């Protein structure tokens, strides 16, 4: 038993509901982060902070690229 715990479980041995739960949480967190970035950008535009807004746009582009790469890897 102790040896099995040290080795860990492979994905094939992991129950489907636990994998689905983890993926659901990850999707929810990504949705919250995306919405917060959108609202922060809206606030920056409203307060006319152009330099910060431009850097936020670059961050959003990088996050989109990372999302595309992770989607292709999956």
How are the SSEs placed, and which strands pair?
Layout: H1 2-7, H2 16-46, H3 50-73
Describe this protein's structure.
The protein is mostly helical and 74 residues long. It has a domain at 48-74. Helix content is 82%, strand content 0%. It contains 3 helices and no strands. It has helices at 2-7, 16-46, 50-73. Helix 2 (16-46) packs antiparallel against helix 3. The chain is elongated and about 55 Å long. The two termini are 32 Å apart. The mean pLDDT is 76.
Helical fraction equals over 70%
Outline the biggest β-sheet. none
Structural class: mainly alpha
Oligomer: single chain
Question: Mean pLDDT score, rounded?
Answer: 76
Task: Write out key terms for the chains shown.
74 residues, mainly alpha, 3 helices, 0% strand
Q: How do you describe this structure in short?
A:
The chain is mostly helical and 74 residues long.
């Amino acid at each position: 038993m102790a040896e099995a715990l040290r080795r860990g479980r492979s994905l094939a041995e992991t129950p489907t509901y636990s994998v689905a739960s983890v993926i659901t949480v990850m999707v929810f967190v990504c949705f919250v982060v995306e919405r917060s970035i959108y609202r922060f950008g809206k606030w920056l535009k409203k307060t006319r902070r152009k330099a910060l807004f431009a850097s936020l746009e670059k961050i959003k582009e990088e996050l989109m690229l990372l999302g595309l790469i992770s989607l292709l890897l999956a």
